[in-house]
């Protein structure tokens, strides 16, 4: 029987990559990189063989979609930030059986989901950035799920999360589940970015305060209360991908029955106006 052994909410900001390049950002995101590597170490200790990443940089306009290819290899340049991420090499093995199983179970539960096996289907940087650093500690097979959902409800994403858990437990893999996305996500307006030292600041004090309150709720295990406010939090604080990655995560963990105390492995930090962190969600 398969097992979900660990879950995490993880940052994927491009400055993690820039932190290892010569220039003014060198070393500035080391705590976030260390957080990625620590999560991978924990997953390795628990025997994880596959990572499922709910990627808020893969935009979906209809249905849910899973990249269930058997192999991922190429050079990635971000069409959003080509000055930040360009010619990033990647090479990972996939887990088509798990991807297909998630899609079938989700569809059977009433949430239409397709699994794709296409070499030309590009992997987004919400998957590639975490894998860049986690793979240094532990090689895992990868399944990427689109989580920038434009016409979907959190209830549907909850059901998809349930399907992830059911598919894992019906198989024979131990799995790390990652919600790849920020907390608040109001990027600085273009004209205001430079004047506000945008790379290292938050665009809204209100967003920062709510982000910090959410982290306290997670650390205290008060997930039931968080879920009552998640949809409004995503709306008013511009949650990345409307926080569908987080809804999928909670769906897999038991939704409002989940009450484990989370562990922040990278202290909260602002980036380009947004709120970022790495948080471990222990599996019950």
Which class do the helix and strand fractions yield? alpha/beta
Strand order of the largest sheet: 6-3-7-2-8-1-10-9
Order of helices and strands: EHHEEEEHEHEHEHHHEE
The tally of beta strands, per DSSP, is 10
Helix content: 25-40%
What does the average pLDDT come to?
96
Number of helical segments? 8
How many strands, which pairing sense, and closed or not: the largest β-sheet? Answer: 8 strands, mixed
Shape: globular
Distance between the termini: 16 Å
Taking all Cα atoms into account, the compactness measure Rg is: 17 Å
What are the low-pLDDT stretches, counting only 5+ consecutive residues below 50?
none
Strand content: 25-35%
Protein name: 3,4-dihydroxyphenylacetate 2,3-dioxygenase
Pfam families: LigB
Domain Extradiol ring-cleavage dioxygenase class III enzyme subunit B: 7-281
GO molecular function: 3,4-dihydroxyphenylacetate 2,3-dioxygenase activity
What are the defining features of this structure?
25% strand, globular, two-stranded antiparallel ribbon, eight-stranded mixed beta sheet, 284 residues, alpha/beta, 35% helix, 8 helices
What does this structure look like?
It is a single chain. By secondary structure, the chain is α/β, with parallel strands linked by helices. Helix content is 35%, strand content 25%. It has eight helices and ten strands. It has helices spanning 15-18, 30-45, 96-108, 125-134, 154-170, 205-219, 223-236, 244-253; strands at 3-10, 50-60, 64-67, 71-76, 88-93, 113-116, 141-149, 174-180, 263-271, 274-281. Strands 6-3-7-2-8-1-10-9 form an eight-stranded mixed β-sheet, sandwiched between helices. A hairpin with a 2-residue loop joins strand 9 and strand 10 (274-281).
